[in-house]
Structures are given as C-alpha cells and as structure tokens.
UniProtKB/TrEMBL annotation:
Organism: Planotetraspora mira
Membrane topology label: Multi-pass membrane protein
Record bears the keyword Membrane: yes
Job description of the protein: Part of the binding-protein-dependent transport system for D-xylose. Probably responsible for the translocation of the substrate across the membrane.
Keyword check for Transmembrane: yes
Transmembrane segments: 34-54, 60-81, 112-135, 142-163, 194-215, 246-267, 279-309, 329-346
Alphabetized GO MF terms: transmembrane transporter activity
One protein family per Pfam: BPD_transp_2
GO cellular component: plasma membrane
Stated name of the protein: Xylose transport system permease protein XylH
Keyword annotations of the record: Cell inner membrane, Cell membrane, Membrane, Sugar transport, Transmembrane, Transmembrane helix, Transport
Superkingdom classification of source: Bacteria
Length: 351
C-alpha cells in the first residue's frame, strides 16, 4: 500500500528531472562557444583518423604552440568584437612591437629590457590611438584600423630599411638583457615527451583572465552593453568611450606580448611579418561564437577557435594533404561559424 502511494511522487520527480535535464541541455546549447567546441571535437577526430603523426603525443606541444600564437591575439580581438568593434591592425601591430624593441635597443646601445618596456608603451599607445580616433572621427572601426594597418605596415618597412639598410632587424642575441628576456618571452618547458612553449602559458592565462572579466565583473557587463547598443549603454551610465578605448589598448598589450615572443624566439624580426594575420584572429573569434554585430560572444570560444586553427594547420601537413586548401578551409569555417552563431543567438534570445 505504501509503495503504491509513493508512485505518483516518484513519477513527478522523474518528470521534474527530465525537465531539469532538458533545461540544462538547452542552456548549454545556447552558449556561444558550443559550435566551436563541436567543431574542435570533429576536427580532432578527423585528423586522429587520417594523420598518423597527429596521434603522436610528442606533437601535442607543436599543435598547442601554433594555437597559442593565434590565441594570444584572438582573445583580445574577441573581446573587442563583443564590444562592437574591429581591429584590422592587430597583426602588423605585433610586428611593430617587436621591431620597436629591437631597433631601440640596438641603435641606442641600450639594455634589451629598455627596448621591451618602450615597445610596450608604443603598443598600448597604438591601441589608444585607434580608440581615440574612432570617437574623434565617428568613422567605423573597420576604416580607422584599416588606416592604422597601412600606416604601421609602411612604418615597419620604411623605418627598418632606413636604420638597418635591410628588411629585418639585426640579431640582438649578444646584447645585455637578452638572456633574461628570452626566458620570459621565448622559453619552453618539457613535460615527458611534450615540449611546451611559454606562449601556451600566456594564452591560457589570458583566456582565464578575460573570461573572468567578461562574465564576473562590471567591466564585462559594460563590454556586452556597448557592443549591443552604445546609445542605450551610455544612457544608463556605462562609460562607453573608456570601455572601447580600453579594449583597443588590451589588443595593443597582447600585440606587445606577441611581438616580444616573435623577437626573442628568432632573435630578429622581419618587417613584413604579420600582414594577413588580423583576419585569422577575427576568424578565430567568429568561429568561437563572436558575432560581427557585437554584443555577443565568448573569449573561451575564441581560444577554441585558435585551437581549431592549430590542429588544422598541422593536421593538413601531417595527413599529407595539399596545404593550398587551408585558405579554403578558412572561408568555409567563417561562413559556417557565422550561420551557427546567428542560430545559437536566436535560440538563446527565445529563452
């Protein structure tokens, strides 16, 4: 008799559990990074099946290194896109940073660390200039940073050739401060058969910090607000100008970090480096769930997008495929990611 009496309660509990499970599944599927996570799993399984070297655990470090060099920039670019803006100068800005540190230290005979610090000032100033010009002119950030892209590209090549008579900086490996700086920006650690570059650590730390700021702080709320509707955000007291300029400066800081690795990994910097990489950073962010219209996205997703690039770049080579098809992959992934992001956003809005 007692067992019969409790059956309806059990059935009700089961129905509640099913409803709760469906609700949890719906929330997870409405996350902006869900598409990139599924894509990363599919690509991982694909290359595990077709590329024997991809299964070698020793190559994990190489894959993560390729992903980290993209992810360090994809994270701030993703934040900027969530804030409703673009930065097409991000790729050459990293080169500008590396060139600044090398040329200043070499030509003035200074300790390498002086060049590193001054390069940080230059990089953050470039970001601040982009943000300031955006508000001063009222032009779209696409046009503002496209102009900065060409300015920096010309300055990189012109100044380097003027000071060195070449298109690359001199080797600075014998200068004071180089060894310690290389340990910070170009070192690596070995964990069993896997060798990890320091950029992997920087990438992970930047992702965690950015995700915390975006999802757990008032600044994160401001970023979503200014990306969704700047006028409405300003009306409720959000510091729109400071938020957006701060995002451009964050891109500048990460460009400095990327440029320092470039310099201390190879001891020299090619002045034409970085052209075209800005699109890779943007595509990684879009694959990760960032909408081109702003106000929606995920820095974790942007990092997953960078991981997809790292796996694909090496996976194609490991599989023996023609690497010329990589650009085709970029285009296809961009289109698919955009469609998926819009769909996920619509599903999330309906909830």
């Amino acid at each position: 008799m007692t067992a019969t009496a409790t059956e309806p309660g059990r059935a009700g509990a089961t129905r509640d559990d099913r409803v709760a499970s469906r609700s949890l599944a719906a929330r997870l599927l409405s996350r902006p990074e869900v598409g990139s996570l599924i894509g990363a799993i599919v690509i991982f399984l694909l290359f595990m099946a077709v590329a024997v070297p991809f299964r070698n655990i020793a190559n994990v470090g190489t894959i993560l290194y390729g992903a980290s060099t993209i992810g360090i920039m994809a994270v701030p670019v993703g934040l900027l896109m969530i804030g409703g803006e673009f930065d097409l100068s991000a790729g050459v800005a990293a080169t500008t940073s590396g060139l600044s540190a090398s040329l200043i230290a070499w030509n003035l005979g200074l300790n390498v660390w002086v060049g590193v610090i001054l390069a940080l000032v230059v990089s953050v100033a470039v970001g601040a200039f982009n943000g300031w010009l955006l508000f001063k002119t009222g032009l779209p950030s696409f046009l503002v940073t496209l102009g900065t892209f060409f300015i920096l590209q010309g300055v990189n090549l012109g100044v380097t050739r003027l000071l060195t008579g070449n298109v690359a900086t001199a080797d600075i490996s014998d200068m004071d401060g180089f060894v310690s700086a290389q340990k910070v920006f170009g070192s690596e650690i070995t964990l069993g058969p896997v060798t990890l570059k320091v950029t992997v650590l920087y990438w992970v730390v930047l992702t965690l910090i950015a995700a915390y700021v975006l999802l757990r702080t008032r600044v994160g709320n401001w970023i979503f607000a200014v990306g969704g509707d700047s006028a409405a955000a300003r009306a409720v007291g959000v510091p729109v100008k400071a938020t957006k300029i701060g995002l451009f400066m964050a891109v500048g800081f990460c460009a400095w970090l990327s440029g320092m690795h470039l310099l201390f990994q190879f001891n020299t910097v090619q002045s034409g480096e970085g052209v075209g990489k800005e699109f890779i950073f943007i595509i990684a962010a879009v694959i990760g769930g960032c909408l081109l219209t702003g106000g929606y996205g995920s820095v974790i997703g942007a990092s997953i997008g960078a991981l997809i690039f790292g796996m694909t770049q090496l996976g194609i080579n490991y599989a023996g495929w023609n690497p010329d098809w990589f650009k085709t992959f970029l285009g296809v992934m961009l289109l698919l990611a955009t469609v998926v992001n819009v769909y996920v956003k619509l599903k999330a809005d309906r909830r």
